[in-house]
Specification:
mainly alpha, 4 helices, 0% strand
């Protein structure tokens, strides 16, 4: 594995480290995950699962009928 050096605002780094601790991970691990996504090496199915997790807060409000779903 190769090391790289990044520069960022001190407050941003500290807030990121705190969040990583809360999520029981490290800033290095978070950055590696981001770098994999950025480079496009993650599987499509995994990307879909991540998207569904990110959107899990959205609720339709009620079940739609077949007619409602097919309205144009």
């Amino acid at each position: 594995m190769k090391n790289i050096t990044l520069s960022a605002d001190t407050n941003l780094i500290e807030k990121s480290r705190q969040r990583a601790r809360r999520e029981k991970t490290t800033l290095n691990a978070v950055f590696r995950q981001w770098l994999e996504r950025y480079a496009g090496r993650r599987a499509v199915a995994s990307g879909y699962s991540d998207l569904m997790k990110d959107l899990s807060y959205a609720q339709a409000g009620h079940s739609f009928s077949r007619e409602e779903m097919n309205e144009r």
